[in-house]
TrEMBL record:
<keyword id="KW-0902">Two-component regulatory system</keyword>
<dbReference type="InterPro" id="IPR036097">
    <property type="entry name" value="HisK_dim/P_sf"/>
</dbReference>
<dbReference type="InterPro" id="IPR036890">
    <property type="entry name" value="HATPase_C_sf"/>
</dbReference>
<keyword id="KW-0418">Kinase</keyword>
<dbReference type="GO" id="GO:0000155">
    <property type="term" value="F:phosphorelay sensor kinase activity"/>
</dbReference>
<dbReference type="InterPro" id="IPR004358">
    <property type="entry name" value="Sig_transdc_His_kin-like_C"/>
</dbReference>
<dbReference type="Pfam" id="PF00512">
    <property type="entry name" value="HisKA"/>
</dbReference>
<dbReference type="InterPro" id="IPR003661">
    <property type="entry name" value="HisK_dim/P_dom"/>
</dbReference>
<feature type="transmembrane region" description="Helical">
    <location>
        <begin position="29"/>
        <end position="50"/>
    </location>
</feature>
<feature type="domain" description="Histidine kinase">
    <location>
        <begin position="200"/>
        <end position="406"/>
    </location>
</feature>
<keyword id="KW-0597">Phosphoprotein</keyword>
<feature type="transmembrane region" description="Helical">
    <location>
        <begin position="94"/>
        <end position="112"/>
    </location>
</feature>
<keyword id="KW-0547">Nucleotide-binding</keyword>
<dbReference type="Pfam" id="PF02518">
    <property type="entry name" value="HATPase_c"/>
</dbReference>
<keyword id="KW-1133">Transmembrane helix</keyword>
<dbReference type="InterPro" id="IPR005467">
    <property type="entry name" value="His_kinase_dom"/>
</dbReference>
<dbReference type="InterPro" id="IPR003594">
    <property type="entry name" value="HATPase_dom"/>
</dbReference>
Length: 414
């Protein structure tokens, strides 16, 4: 059994060090994770621990459990099929394998959902309780047969298997945590580059814009026609708007959390729709909304509005013409305000979704990708998150979750 433990831990360690895979890759049957599980399965079933000619013990339960927990349904059932094939060639009782492990696989489908909700300690507890059903049921069967010596061996070997399983869970969870930290560091480095670039470019652009705005204001004092006056007013408004956007880019480098205010999100969404309504009508796109009244959050009004305008603009450009954008908003039970912006545009592939929000990545021909990068940064600074679901040719749904404003309770004065 010590040989089995060393082989399994050494194999998992090699996989962890040299073959780091993303979660989505591990769920494919062609993944390196499944290959390593297959190696462990063949070894442990071909070299079982013999108590008697009838009773053979190995670590195949560990392989099935790990395959379902970290590989998903496809890898789990593929491991189950490999177990049956290996069992056929290693003189194991095939009907018993089929019966027992069919039940385990069906139970693991439910356990997997519960498993991923917890932190590492909770995961260890869940998987320990599940695994202990195997020696307990086997021990009850042996007790009924009166084979007491065999019962002691079952519980002793089961403790070794359980300890191995817990060690593997810690190894894999540590690997996942390292991958997440690495990705977070890469994102942070990209954001740092974007922040510095935004700050330097914004400062350079501000000066000529200020000069242009000053000349526009001087022209306003001259005798002009109504049309000329209108054009100058629009130009000044657009310059002011550009100035606001530059300030938002500067916020990437220096967040202004100390200037937060209470925002009526319901009216802000309506204002954002009003701004984009003409652009939508030009493309024959209808914008509908179903937002709860009096939704309130804390933040910077201009920044939050920029998030909505950017996402609505992207939705319009994804539809191109003759479509619909639905905007809904409500307060959730966990103290957040959830805003959904859904379109029936071209949609995106899974690979595009993974990269979306990264600096300088855009699905548009002339896009820079900075718009969504800024949106993610603004929402993250406010303690919220942006979730994106999309299906090719069917459309995209942006879900913006922001912490709801909580009214501070008045101090008690006797």
């Amino acid at each position: 059994m010590c040989l089995h433990v060393v082989f399994i831990l050494f194999t998992i360690l090699i996989y962890q060090v040299f073959f780091k895979e993303r979660e989505e890759k591990r769920k494919k049957i062609r993944s390196k994770f499944f290959l390593f599980m297959l190696m462990i399965l063949v070894f442990t079933m071909s070299q079982p621990v013999l108590y008697t000619e009838i009773y053979k013990y190995d670590f195949k339960a560990v392989v099935i459990i790990l395959s379902f927990l970290y590989g998903g349904k496809k890898v789990g059932f593929a491991a189950f099929l490999a177990l049956l094939i290996t069992g056929f060639f290693t003189d194991q009782r095939l009907p018993v394998l089929v019966g027992n492990y069919t039940v385990y696989c069906l139970l693991l489908l439910r356990i997997t959902r519960m498993f991923h909700r917890y932190q590492i300690k909770g995961k260890v507890l869940v998987i320990s309780l599940f695994y202990m059903t195997i020696p307990i049921t086997r021990g009850i069967f042996l007790e009924l047969k009166g084979d007491y010596r065999q019962t002691y061996f079952v519980f002793g070997s089961s403790l070794i298997v359980l300890a191995t399983l817990i060690a593997i869970v810690y190894l894999i969870e540590n690997m996942n945590e390292q991958l997440e930290m690495k990705q977070e560091l890469i994102r942070a480095e990209k954001m740092n580059v974007v922040s510095q670039l935004a700050a330097s470019v914004a400062h350079e652009i501000r000066n000529p814009m200020t000069s242009v705005r000053g000349f526009m204001q001087l022209l306003q004092k001259e005798e002009l026609t109504k049309e000329q006056q209108l054009y100058i007013n629009i130009s000044i408004e657009e310059l002011d708007r550009a100035q606001e956007i530059i300030n938002q880019y500067l916020a990437l480098a220096k967040p202004q959390t100390d200037q937060y205010e209470i925002i009526n999100l319901t009216s802000l969404i309506q204002q954002s729709i009003d701004v984009m309504q003409s652009y939508a009508l030009l493309n024959s796109i209808q914008i509908t909304q179903e937002v709860e009244p009096s939704l309130k959050i804390e933040g910077l009004k201009l920044e939050v509005q920029q998030v909505f305008i950017n996402i609505i603009k992207n939705a319009i450009e994804a539809i191109k013409s003759d479509g619909e954008i639905g905007i809904s908003g409500s307060k959730t039970a966990d103290g957040f305000v959830s805003i959904q912006i859904k379109d029936n545009g071209v949609g995106m592939t899974k690979d595009q979704l993974k990269k979306l929000g990264s600096p300088y990545y855009s699905t548009k021909e002339k896009g820079t990708g900075l718009g969504l990068t800024v949106c993610h940064q603004i929402v993250k600074q406010m303690g919220g998150q942006i979730l994106i679901n999309s299906e090719l040719t069917k459309g995209t749904c942006f879900t913006i979750n922001l912490p709801a404003y909580k009214k501070k309770s008045e101090e008690y004065t006797p």
